Amino acid sequence: MNKQSILGYQPQDSFIHRLNATAKLFFFLLVSIACMTTFDTRFLLFVAIFSIILFKSAHLQWQQVSFIIKFIALFSLLNLIAIFIFQPTYGQELYGSRHVLLAAGYFTLTSQELFYLVNVALKYFCTVPLALLFLLTTDPSAFASSLNKLKISYKISYAVALALRYIPDIQATYWDISAAQQARGYELSSKAKLSTRLKGAINIILPLIFSSLERINTISTAMQLRRFGSKKTRTWYTQRPFKASDWFVIILAIVLFGITLYLFKLNHGRFYDPFN
């Protein structure tokens, strides 16, 4: 993996990048809450497709997100397998019916269980693209000013901005150390055994943690010397006014959330049941 895969803000000229950070945060949070609370397959499928389209429209490079997407995909697959192993009858209990697809004793697979697992998988397709989209298209400084605009303390807002800025720095430092280790003859690439790569990663992460703590102390000292936090308010160089496109995104988020409330009433609960 090279530095092109570093996960962090990447400036581009796209519709998503030009949106106000507050509008993007509002959309991400509200739509994510809607997707997490409902199990209506029709809604989840629509939001999943819409999220993927938004992700592609931001002109982001695959190298930037390939590692995190593969990691989340592996985690999601393990989660689905664990759900099936520990309670393979949960789907039929939810939907109150049973249609056997594969008879295998305790691990009998039913249409209801498979349908429930598909809904769980769709939730990842709904939220993961939106989360990555927000992280990769939002300038940390603009995000901090937007949080402050929402009446959140500017100290907390600035801390969030520093954290977002620090994520790419940590990744860059990690790959620099990894490259230096490989130059000394330690094989840490995909050619090495998994145990060797894990051991090498641990040897890199431990000193990286200590160096990060030292950098945090340096930054906090520098901020204190500049009397950060001595005033009740502050101004923001990157603060942007709301435009028509930002209001459209906020209204769209409210509409999507409102649809889930309507579906709750229509389905008499969180679950859409196509079997009855």
TrEMBL record:
InterPro entries (UniProt xref): ABC/ECF_trnsptr_transmembrane (IPR003339)
Membrane topology note: Multi-pass membrane protein
PROSITE patterns attached to this UniProt entry: PROKAR_LIPOPROTEIN (PS51257)
Keywords (A to Z) from UniProt: Membrane, Transmembrane, Transmembrane helix
Location of this chain's protein in the cell: Membrane
GO cellular component term of the entry, any: plasma membrane
Transmembrane regions: 25-55, 67-86, 114-136, 244-264
A Pfam family this chain is assigned to: CbiQ
Top-rank taxon, per record: Bacteria
Protein name: Cobalt ABC transporter permease
Source organism per UniProt: Ligilactobacillus murinus
